TrEMBL record:
GO terms assigned for molecular function: glycosyltransferase activity
InterPro entries per record: GAUT, Glyco_trans_8, Nucleotide-diphossugar_trans
Functional pathway: Glycan metabolism; pectin biosynthesis
UniProt EC number: 2.4.1.-
One of the GO BP terms on file: cell wall organization
Membrane topology: Single-pass type II membrane protein
Places the protein is found: Golgi apparatus membrane
Record keywords, A-Z: Cell wall biogenesis/degradation, Glycosyltransferase, Golgi apparatus, Membrane, Transferase, Transmembrane, Transmembrane helix
Pfam families: GAUT_1, Glyco_transf_8
Positions of the UniProt region annotated as Disordered: 1-22, 128-152
Name by which UniProt lists this protein: Hexosyltransferase
Main location: Golgi
Family: Belongs to the glycosyltransferase 8 family.
Amino acid sequence: MPTPKQRLPYSTAGGGGGGRRAAAGSSVLPPVVVLVFLFVVAPSLFFVVRNGGRGHVHVASDPKGRNDDQEAVAMKNLKSILPKEVIDAIASSQQEAGALSLDFFRNHESPSWKTDDLVTDKSMYDKAKDENSVSEHDLPANKSLKDPDEHQVDTAAKIARRKLREKRREKRAMDLMRKDDEARVKLENAAIERSKAVDSAVLGKYSIWRKENENENSDSTVRLMRDQIIMARVYSALAKSKNKNDLFQELQTRIKESQRAVGEAAADADLHHSAPEKIRAMGQVLSKAREEVYDCRAITQRLRAMLQSADEQVRSLKKQSTFLSQLAAKTIPNSIHCLSMRLTIDYHLLPLEQRKFPRSENLENPSLYHYALFSDNVLAASVVVNSTIMNAKEPEKHVFHLVTDKLNFGAMNMWFLLNPPGKATIHVENVDEFKWLNSSYCPVLRQLESAAMKEYYFKADRPTTLSAGSSNLKYRNPKYLSMLNHLRFYLPEVYPKLDKILFLDDDIVVQKDLTGLWDVDLNGRVNGAVETCGESFHRFDKYLNFSNPHIARNFDPNACGWAYGMNIFDLKEWKKKDITGIYHKWQNKNEDRVLWKLGTLPPGLLTFYKLTHPLDKSWHVLGLGYNPSIDRSEIDGAAVVHYNGNMKPWLELAMTKYRPYWTKYIKYDHPYIRGCNLSE
């Protein structure tokens, strides 16, 4: 057994003298007792005191302030356990070396006494003892002061561990808060990115305050009744096939009642007040039919047949809708026809000397700003002229060249004689008076006179039904028969003394001064236009037949398309490059319509291929006649907005959100407009 670092004194004389004096007396203290005390009893006493055992030993001063009575009780218990010699040795050692204390055992520990739960790091112990020491004046008066040297090791260790735990908790809390902040920032950024992807164009199409949007299923009852009607039809067919005549008649009666209750309702609020009663009655008869004639296979076949029939009806209705929309787009409303007729009558009542426009000397002045407008719509032409003049910085320098057909020639003259465009110059011509424009010179006129073209447009065996007649209706448009549509390819012949001219369609509205277009450098090209191609649409392959070798050899299918409607033409370069001759060449090759369908944009793409200078898109914004999702800022920032498409602003099918851009240039209090019931 290892020898302890320091033995506790057990006699007053030191060494073994105590034993000899004891032997001289009545008895001698055996050395075995001393060894037992040193190596067995003393450590046991220490751990008894340390762990709060049933036996209590008085060591130094009790940390908890035990009184003398407790110490006496402890000594009494020891006397009952240990022999008298051991008790005397303990008493004598206390008198010589002082009371036993934990500091003594800590500073003179034996290797066999070390335990895991004791703090042996002196620096840690001292640090904890200093941090938790309490000065005398900070303690309450009724509590005894504590000497820092008398703090127990286990208390200091607990405090130190508690401090470490608190620091770790604080650190974890800070880490969690930091992670929460990072996660919140990420969520906010993700929400912002998602909000940018939201298509805001549809936000104005409905209001959450409308009745039909008060809940998600505002038409649930309507749909229930229609489903009941469908099932009743199925069961009635089955009942008839099984000779259940009474059930068949009852189902037919309930079907008629439910149909009357539903009517044209699109939401539950539109239903007749008897609808709940009809639903209950129909439910009862359907339950009865299910019990009597239910056949899963037969019902499946019947529903499949009804689905196919409904699909055919939808297709037919779509064709009819296409036909009617095309028809509506190409016809003139009664009010505009009325306006044209009244103006024509009044024009022919005018004396000849009053039919002339002023400032005719400006018509061939190349230093002025010249516009070409070809139209048979008086009201549309007036909007183009009025919007251009009202937004022009120098109206007196603008010259408008209008060309119309003989049917509308009088009306167009009369309107602008009554409503002259301020200080601007205007002139109206009749396309039928252009004697040089004949079938021997113009391929389109020659083709229109051919038997094949007449059959295409006017064949007697054309289908009479709406669905059948809608085939290729877009390309059978009567406007393709009018030379007003093809006159754009003959600008140098119509205006031989001009250098530049701005071509405008009659379905546009001018919102800014356009004189800046005359300063655009076209870089030797003929046509200045806004390109319309996106990533994969409005390119040449959309308009031209690239399966034809003439097209495939000479053009790029991915070449970008551009728009008619607002085009600045350099007539000098036009003449140099013989643009009209190029147009004639391709028009002659398309006599059988194998290169492109009818229209002026495909031959324009061919004629001005690599001769078109792209303009900034803000000059010309298109799509107001078919696209409901154009950005408002785009429209407001455009110099020209174009109602290309079927929904022209003078038609009832025009989109109401875009119509005000056009109607604000019409004087609805004008006597002629008011007399023909034209209204906003």
